[in-house]
Design goal:
single chain, 152 residues, mainly alpha
């Protein structure tokens, strides 16, 4: 037998053996670990900046579909946050429709709707970080002009 065939066969077998121990996935390959990570991020993460960072990581790995889904979720959460901020400001101005909408969101959150729960958390965060300029409570006394007649 030719020793060259033995050497080539041995190198081929060694390469096949070593490829079975490959630790990193190929570019663009969805491995079970990556799939698990993607599902956890999509299911649990609600911070847009974290979602954008994860999208960048999936982009670097060549998983464009996953990155696009993460970016879409981040955009939707940002839109939801802006809508809740607007709703809170309308409630502060005394808009009855906004109050009813916020009450309906609260009821949906109590029923277990995940999106409504997130909206209530955003509303709570917004109200704590953006306090009102005027004190809330009974109406402030109306200033009396010096020409006004004394109260009897």
């Amino acid at each position: 037998m030719n020793p060259g065939i033995w050497i080539a066969g041995g190198i081929g077998a060694l390469a096949l053996y070593l490829s079975s121990f490959r630790k990193t996935a190929l570019h663009g390959e969805m491995t079970p670990a990556r799939q698990h990570l993607f599902q956890c991020i999509m299911g649990q993460e609600t911070r847009p900046e974290k979602l954008d960072k994860a999208a960048g990581l999936f982009d670097r790995e060549g998983l464009d579909d996953c990155a696009n889904q993460l970016r879409r979720k981040a955009r939707e959460i940002c839109m939801q946050m802006r809508a809740i901020a607007d709703l809170c400001e309308r409630v502060r101005l005394g808009d009855q429709n906004a109050m009813g909408t916020l009450a309906a969101v609260r009821e949906q959150a109590k029923a277990g709707n995940r999106r409504a729960i997130l909206s209530c958390q955003f509303a709570d965060w917004y109200c704590r970080t953006h306090p009102t300029a005027a004190p809330i409570g009974p109406q402030a006394p109306v200033p009396v002009s010096p020409d006004a007649a004394p109260a009897t």
